[in-house]
Amino acid sequence: MVDTLKTAIRLMCKAHPAGRLGMAYDLGMTIDQFHNHLYRKCQSRFFTVDELMKMEDLSGTNYLAEHFASRRRLTLVDIPSMQNVDKVDLFDIELKTDAADGELASAKLAAVSDGVIDSHEHKNLSELFHKKIRHQIHGFMGFLALYGVGVSDHSVDMFVASNRKADVAGMHFEAPEA
After folding, report:
1. Residue 20 DSSP code
2. SS3 category, 161
3. In degrees, to the nearest 5, what angle opens at C-alpha 31 toward C-alphas 40 and 9?
């Protein structure tokens, strides 16, 4: 999970082929100007949203989107298209889901071994749970895409964000009431 914008920027710079220096150059800044914006030095403003989105595009990552999703306690999910999914891909997604489930189960056992879940363990469990859910939803949407059911971005967002109900390509999903 990406907790802060500075963390997102750091990760995007790390993913950029030329690092932080290359990111600054691609934004039309010197490295000093970049640092002034990042650390708000010399009465510099922080990066604009357009600059942040450009960094995300230049790095080829989704760390900025992850940051904004985590701010609202939402989960990002890759939405596969029919052209990009075959049975082998679906099997790989299911394996990743199973691996994430195993990681979560192991972390649960470790967390309760002392009888108390502390804040660090809570954060780790939450991150692993989100990872598992992302893989499960990705696999389900891949399954729908593989068998010709169209999946729209809006329907997935509604299904993941509302925690209640959603219509996905003519199918109605409703979360059980707590």
Report:
1. H
2. helix
3. 60
Q: Is there a contact between 46 and 40 (Cβ–Cβ < 8 Å)?
A: yes
Q: Taking the model in full, what pTM does it have?
A: 0.57
Q: Please give the chain's pLDDT, 178 residues, in tens.
A: 678 999 999 999 999 999 999 999 999 999 999 999 999 999 999 999 999 999 999 999 989 998 998 888 887 776 666 566 788 888 888 898 899 999 999 999 999 998 899 999 999 998 899 889 888 888 888 888 777 766 554 444 444 444 444 444 444 444 444 3
**Beta-bridge partners for 166:** 173
Can you state the angle between helices 49-59 and 5-15, rounded to 10 degrees?
40
CA distance 77 to 62: 11
Residue with the two structure tokens 């999703």? 69
CA-closest candidate to residue 93, choices 151, 157, 136: 136
Residue 171 phi, psi dihedral angles, 5° rounding: -100, 140
Phi (first) and psi of residue 73, to 5 degrees: 55, 45
Q: Give the 3-state secondary structure of 94-122.
A: HHHHHHHHHHHHHHHHHHHCCCCCCHHHH
Q: What is the dihedral of CA 150, 156, 162, 164, to 10 degrees?
A: 40
DSSP state of 79: -
